[in-house]
């Protein structure tokens, strides 16, 4: 009898522990049960939304124009600090799945790395000797035709 009570108590404790450690269900910005969208978003060709914000001086008066891409532990709002003082226009976006941008269900570590290459390659160029041949070729052929 004591063993049955102990097993029941243990099972109840395990159920409570499981429920206590489960994360809450995700809420997507702009959906019916999600938080409201507070910044500008553009609709991508695959139907997802990408959130962005513009900071600093107006684009026509800026000395420099910067596209700020945040890291893993931040969002588009961290670009504000020095923009106006330096006469800089900054366009900052939330990466897919962060803050108000829709997640990309097809995203993998490889596609994320190739997206970084696609951002840098037009500045450097695809035939730079520092780029590995297979990486530059793969990123080049992933560009959309209008790029």
Automatic annotation (TrEMBL):
Keywords: Signal. The keyword Signal applies. It comes from the Eukaryota. Residues 1-20 form the signal peptide. The keyword Signal applies. PANTHER family: ALPHA_BETA-HYDROLASES SUPERFAMILY PROTEIN (PTHR45763:SF51), HYDROLASE, ALPHA/BETA FOLD FAMILY PROTEIN, EXPRESSED-RELATED (PTHR45763). This is Serine aminopeptidase S33 domain-containing protein. It comes from Camellia sinensis var. sinensis.
């Amino acid at each position: 009898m004591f063993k049955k009570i102990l097993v029941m108590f243990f099972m109840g404790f395990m159920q409570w522990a499981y429920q206590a450690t489960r994360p809450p269900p995700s809420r997507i910005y702009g959906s019916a049960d999600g938080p409201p969208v507070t910044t500008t978003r553009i609709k991508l060709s695959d139907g997802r939304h990408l959130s962005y914000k513009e900071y600093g001086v107006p684009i026509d008066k800026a000395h420099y124009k910067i596209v700020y891409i945040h890291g893993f532990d931040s969002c588009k709002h961290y670009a504000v600090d020095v923009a106006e003082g330096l006469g800089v226009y900054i366009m900052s976006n939330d990466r897919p799945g962060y803050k108000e941008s829709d997640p990309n269900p097809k995203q993998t570590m490889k596609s994320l790395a190739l997206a970084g290459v696609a951002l840098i390659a037009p500045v450097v160029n695809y035939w730079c000797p520092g780029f590995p041949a297979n990486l530059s070729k793969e990123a080049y052929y992933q560009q959309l035709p209008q790029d």
